[in-house]
Design brief:
- The structure is a single chain.
- The protein is α+β, with helices and mostly antiparallel strands.
- About 25% of the residues lie in helices and about 15% in strands.
- Strand 6 (about 170-175) and strand 7 form a beta hairpin.
Length: about 190
């Protein structure tokens, strides 16, 4: 099986390398990434959204898995293995420098160290939208455990968050011993879907 630049298995068939769609918490965006690295990439994207800049929910410019070569090269991109993501790509186009403030860049580097990622903003040809896994599978598993991201119920929690975001807020009705969904106009102003 071919491998991407970072040594992870790559395939034109996303099922062959276990590509999954995962939501960036706090947004309506999902990324296609390899299941083994999904906890790291999604946690990073969530922190990026909360600490660097909001994920732009206008044009869809958050990218993950794509079977292709490195732009301008002949080796498979880390996107081909689902181990790289691009965030707010239209704001941070390939080759453009200083699209983030110094403070944002410091935060990005701190988050990349935390999640074991490399940032395209540190490449010779700047790619400030781009973030990729630089560890092998054993290192990834260890870091996921260390960060407490290996919760087996994470998918169920995300599904529940998605349900609440689209269905409304569930309120217990003890007088009838059942739960009901409040319509959006009856929610408290400080309660927002996740």
């Amino acid at each position: 099986m071919p491998t991407s630049q970072n040594g992870w298995p790559a395939s034109k068939d996303p099922d062959e390398i276990d590509i999954v769609h995962k939501r960036i918490v706090g947004t309506n965006r999902k990324l296609k990434v390899a299941r083994p690295v999904a906890p790291l990439l999604i946690a990073f994207a969530t922190d990026f959204h909360n600490q660097v800049e909001p994920i732009d929910e206008g044009q869809w410019d958050e990218w993950g898995y794509a079977y292709r070569d490195v732009r301008g090269g002949s080796t498979l991109s880390n996107h081909a293995s689902g181990t790289a993501i691009d965030l707010n790509a239209t704001k941070h186009p390939l080759g453009k420098e200083n699209t983030f403030t110094e403070e944002q860049s410091r935060t990005i580097r701190r988050l990349c160290r935390k999640y074991g990622l490399r940032w395209g903003g540190d490449y010779q040809r700047k790619d400030e939208m781009h973030f990729e896994v630089v560890m092998n599978a054993a290192q990834v598993r260890n870091l996921i455990r260390t960060l407490g991201l290996d919760d087996g119920d994470q998918e169920a929690k995300e599904a529940n968050q998605d349900d609440q975001a689209t269905s409304g807020i569930v309120e217990s009705d003890s007088s009838r011993s059942r739960n009901r969904v409040l319509p959006s106009n009856r929610r408290h102003h400080n309660q927002r879907p996740v």
